[in-house]
Amino acid sequence: MTIALYPGSFDPVTNGHIDIAERAARLFPTLFIGVFEAPKKDVLLPIEDRVALFQKSVAHIPNLKIISFSGLMVDCARSIGASVIVRGLRMNTDFEYEFEMALMNRKLAPDLDVVCLMTSLEYQFLSSSLLKEIAKLGGNIDSFVPKHVVSKIEERIHRAK
Ligand code: ADP
User: Domain with 12 in it: what CATH number?
Assistant: First the structure.
Protein backbone atom coordinates (compact mmCIF):
# COMPACT_ATOMS: atom_id res chain seq x y z
CA MET A 1 0.00 0.00 0.00
CA THR A 2 2.10 2.90 -1.28
CA ILE A 3 1.92 6.11 0.70
CA ALA A 4 2.73 9.29 -1.23
CA LEU A 5 3.58 12.78 -0.02
CA TYR A 6 2.89 15.93 -2.08
CA PRO A 7 4.93 18.66 -0.37
CA GLY A 8 4.92 22.40 -1.07
CA SER A 9 4.50 25.88 0.33
CA PHE A 10 0.97 26.25 -1.04
CA ASP A 11 0.86 30.01 -0.40
CA PRO A 12 -1.97 29.78 -1.38
CA VAL A 13 -3.21 26.54 -2.89
CA THR A 14 -4.17 27.06 -6.55
CA ASN A 15 -6.31 25.14 -9.05
CA GLY A 16 -3.01 23.77 -10.41
CA HIS A 17 -2.11 22.23 -7.02
CA ILE A 18 -5.64 20.82 -6.62
CA ASP A 19 -5.43 19.22 -10.06
CA ILE A 20 -2.13 17.51 -9.13
CA ALA A 21 -3.60 16.37 -5.76
CA GLU A 22 -6.69 14.89 -7.45
CA ARG A 23 -4.61 13.02 -10.01
CA ALA A 24 -2.07 11.77 -7.44
CA ALA A 25 -4.91 10.55 -5.21
CA ARG A 26 -6.06 8.37 -8.11
CA LEU A 27 -2.57 6.88 -8.44
CA PHE A 28 -1.80 6.17 -4.78
CA PRO A 29 -3.99 4.58 -2.08
CA THR A 30 -2.94 7.19 0.49
CA LEU A 31 -1.82 10.71 -0.33
CA PHE A 32 -0.54 13.21 2.22
CA ILE A 33 -0.34 16.89 1.41
CA GLY A 34 2.65 18.29 3.33
CA VAL A 35 2.48 22.04 3.83
CA PHE A 36 5.98 23.35 4.47
CA GLU A 37 5.93 25.75 7.40
CA ALA A 38 8.87 28.00 6.68
CA PRO A 39 9.98 28.11 3.05
CA LYS A 40 12.94 30.30 2.05
CA LYS A 41 10.66 32.64 0.14
CA ASP A 42 8.42 35.22 1.83
CA VAL A 43 4.98 33.86 2.53
CA LEU A 44 1.73 35.81 2.55
CA LEU A 45 -0.34 33.37 4.61
CA PRO A 46 0.46 31.81 8.00
CA ILE A 47 0.78 28.03 8.09
CA GLU A 48 -2.70 27.52 9.67
CA ASP A 49 -4.36 29.36 6.78
CA ARG A 50 -2.37 27.51 4.12
CA VAL A 51 -3.38 24.17 5.69
CA ALA A 52 -7.06 25.16 6.16
CA LEU A 53 -7.40 26.48 2.58
CA PHE A 54 -5.94 23.31 1.10
CA GLN A 55 -8.12 21.17 3.40
CA LYS A 56 -11.31 22.87 2.24
CA SER A 57 -10.24 22.58 -1.43
CA VAL A 58 -9.81 18.80 -1.30
CA ALA A 59 -12.56 17.77 1.11
CA HIS A 60 -14.04 15.69 -1.74
CA ILE A 61 -10.96 13.39 -1.91
CA PRO A 62 -11.34 10.56 0.62
CA ASN A 63 -7.81 9.09 0.57
CA LEU A 64 -6.06 12.37 1.25
CA LYS A 65 -4.71 13.83 4.50
CA ILE A 66 -3.14 17.22 5.17
CA ILE A 67 -0.20 17.78 7.48
CA SER A 68 2.27 20.58 8.02
CA PHE A 69 5.99 20.07 8.47
CA SER A 70 9.19 21.92 9.17
CA GLY A 71 12.69 20.64 8.54
CA LEU A 72 13.68 18.20 5.84
CA MET A 73 11.05 16.88 3.47
CA VAL A 74 12.68 13.43 3.54
CA ASP A 75 12.24 13.33 7.33
CA CYS A 76 8.57 14.21 6.96
CA ALA A 77 8.20 11.45 4.36
CA ARG A 78 9.84 8.92 6.68
CA SER A 79 7.67 9.92 9.63
CA ILE A 80 4.48 9.09 7.71
CA GLY A 81 5.90 5.99 5.98
CA ALA A 82 5.82 7.53 2.48
CA SER A 83 7.91 5.95 -0.26
CA VAL A 84 6.92 8.37 -3.02
CA ILE A 85 7.20 12.15 -3.30
CA VAL A 86 4.80 13.79 -5.73
CA ARG A 87 5.68 17.05 -7.46
CA GLY A 88 4.10 19.01 -10.29
CA LEU A 89 5.91 20.13 -13.42
CA ARG A 90 5.00 23.16 -15.48
CA MET A 91 7.81 24.39 -17.71
CA ASN A 92 11.54 23.88 -18.20
CA THR A 93 12.50 25.89 -15.16
CA ASP A 94 10.42 23.60 -12.92
CA PHE A 95 12.19 20.61 -14.40
CA GLU A 96 15.68 21.89 -13.59
CA TYR A 97 14.68 22.73 -10.02
CA GLU A 98 12.86 19.44 -9.45
CA PHE A 99 15.71 17.44 -10.99
CA GLU A 100 18.26 19.04 -8.66
CA MET A 101 16.01 18.51 -5.62
CA ALA A 102 15.27 14.91 -6.58
CA LEU A 103 18.98 14.08 -6.90
CA MET A 104 19.78 15.70 -3.57
CA ASN A 105 16.87 13.94 -1.87
CA ARG A 106 17.98 10.62 -3.38
CA LYS A 107 21.34 11.13 -1.63
CA LEU A 108 19.57 11.85 1.66
CA ALA A 109 17.00 9.07 1.32
CA PRO A 110 17.77 6.47 -1.38
CA ASP A 111 14.56 4.58 -0.62
CA LEU A 112 12.33 7.53 -1.58
CA ASP A 113 11.35 8.08 -5.20
CA VAL A 114 9.99 11.20 -6.87
CA VAL A 115 7.03 11.06 -9.22
CA CYS A 116 6.44 14.24 -11.24
CA LEU A 117 3.04 14.83 -12.79
CA MET A 118 2.81 17.15 -15.79
CA THR A 119 0.53 20.12 -15.27
CA SER A 120 -2.76 20.20 -17.11
CA LEU A 121 -2.63 22.64 -20.03
CA GLU A 122 -4.90 25.24 -18.44
CA TYR A 123 -2.65 25.54 -15.37
CA GLN A 124 0.66 25.73 -17.17
CA PHE A 125 1.24 29.40 -16.35
CA LEU A 126 -0.39 29.39 -12.94
CA SER A 127 1.77 29.94 -9.88
CA SER A 128 1.02 31.09 -6.34
CA SER A 129 3.49 33.94 -6.67
CA LEU A 130 1.99 35.25 -9.91
CA LEU A 131 -1.54 35.20 -8.59
CA LYS A 132 -0.50 37.01 -5.39
CA GLU A 133 1.10 39.67 -7.58
CA ILE A 134 -2.11 40.02 -9.62
CA ALA A 135 -4.24 40.21 -6.46
CA LYS A 136 -1.97 42.87 -4.92
CA LEU A 137 -2.38 44.98 -8.04
CA GLY A 138 -6.16 44.70 -7.86
CA GLY A 139 -6.59 42.05 -10.56
CA ASN A 140 -9.20 39.32 -10.60
CA ILE A 141 -7.98 35.89 -9.45
CA ASP A 142 -11.33 34.05 -9.58
CA SER A 143 -10.27 31.67 -12.32
CA PHE A 144 -7.03 30.58 -10.60
CA VAL A 145 -8.17 29.51 -7.12
CA PRO A 146 -11.35 28.32 -5.37
CA LYS A 147 -13.77 30.97 -4.01
CA HIS A 148 -12.76 30.52 -0.37
CA VAL A 149 -9.14 31.19 -1.33
CA VAL A 150 -10.05 34.40 -3.18
CA SER A 151 -11.70 35.86 -0.08
CA LYS A 152 -8.80 34.91 2.21
CA ILE A 153 -6.21 36.42 -0.14
CA GLU A 154 -8.20 39.63 -0.56
CA GLU A 155 -8.67 39.94 3.21
CA ARG A 156 -4.96 39.39 3.81
CA ILE A 157 -3.84 41.88 1.16
CA HIS A 158 -6.37 44.45 2.39
CA ARG A 159 -5.07 44.03 5.96
CA ALA A 160 -1.47 44.53 4.84
CA LYS A 161 -2.27 47.90 3.18
P1 ADP B 1 7.33 25.05 -3.71
O2 ADP B 1 7.09 23.65 -3.22
O3 ADP B 1 8.51 25.10 -4.60
O4 ADP B 1 7.28 26.10 -2.65
P5 ADP B 1 4.58 25.37 -4.55
O6 ADP B 1 4.12 25.21 -3.16
O7 ADP B 1 3.99 26.52 -5.31
O8 ADP B 1 6.13 25.41 -4.72
O9 ADP B 1 4.21 24.07 -5.41
C10 ADP B 1 4.33 22.76 -4.92
C11 ADP B 1 4.47 21.82 -6.09
O12 ADP B 1 3.37 21.99 -7.01
C13 ADP B 1 5.73 22.03 -6.95
O14 ADP B 1 6.16 20.76 -7.41
C15 ADP B 1 5.25 22.87 -8.10
O16 ADP B 1 6.06 22.70 -9.25
C17 ADP B 1 3.86 22.30 -8.31
N18 ADP B 1 2.98 23.27 -8.95
C19 ADP B 1 2.80 24.58 -8.63
N20 ADP B 1 1.90 25.15 -9.46
C21 ADP B 1 1.50 24.19 -10.34
C22 ADP B 1 0.62 24.15 -11.46
N23 ADP B 1 -0.02 25.25 -11.87
N24 ADP B 1 0.48 22.98 -12.13
C25 ADP B 1 1.16 21.88 -11.71
N26 ADP B 1 2.02 21.85 -10.69
C27 ADP B 1 2.20 22.98 -9.99
Answer: 3.40.50.620
Q: What angle do CA 98, 54, 12 make, to 5 degrees?
A: 65
Enclosing domain of residue 80: 3-160
- Going from the Cα of 159 to the center of ligand 1, the distance in angstroms, rounded, reads 26
Task: Tell me, using a 6 A CB cutoff, whether residue 128 lines ligand 1.
Answer: yes
pLDDT of the residue at 99: 95
The letter for the amino acid at 86 is V
| Size of the chain in residues | 161
- The structural domain count of the chain equals 1
How do residues 87-106 score in pLDDT, each as one tens digit? 999 988 899 999 999 999 99
Rounded to an integer, what distance in angstroms lies between the CA atom of residue 126 and that of residue 25? 21
90 assigned to active site: yes
pTM: 0.95
